Amino acid sequence: MTSENICKVSEYEDSIFYKAHCNCMSPEHEHCLELSYENHGGENKEICLTLYSDLAYYDIYGCKWYHKFWKRIKIAFSLLIGGHPEIHDCFLFNGEKAVEDYIKALQEGLEKLKSIV
């Protein structure tokens, strides 16, 4: 499948993997989509969508160095004390074609997995 922000990485009998890239142009900012057919025995069968993404802290552009430094200290401290830092992420698809390609990839994978059921 050719698209603006998403491509099929691999396909197996019961799963399909796609990789989506953010429009922020950072090579590290991407996520992997896995559409899979899960058979847990008997009547317990389902189609699952799993999104994988690396958590990363991105510096805020335009901030002074000491604000960035203080923010990193707060994140590290929250990880040490609370066990998990709060990191917000935004994944950007610019334009109608990019959104349609994302939807098309999900529909394509769903149709393939429905044929298994």
Q: How do you describe this structure in short?
A:
The chain has about 120 residues and is of the alpha+beta class. It has helices at about 65-80, 95-115, and strands at about 5-10, 15-20, 30-40, 45-55.
Strand content: 25-35%
Query: What is the tally of helical segments?
Result: 2
- Helix-strand pattern: EEEEHH
Instruction: Identify the strand order in the major beta sheet.
Output: 1-2-3-4
Shape: flat
Query: Residue-averaged pLDDT, rounded?
Result: 80
- Structural class, from helix and strand content? alpha+beta
Q: How many beta strands in the DSSP annotation?
A: 4
- The low-confidence runs, each spanning 5 or more residues with pLDDT under 50, are none
Query: Separation of termini?
Result: 23 Å
For the CA atoms, what is the radius of gyration?
19 Å
Overall helicity: 25-40%
Describe the main β-sheet briefly. 4 strands, antiparallel
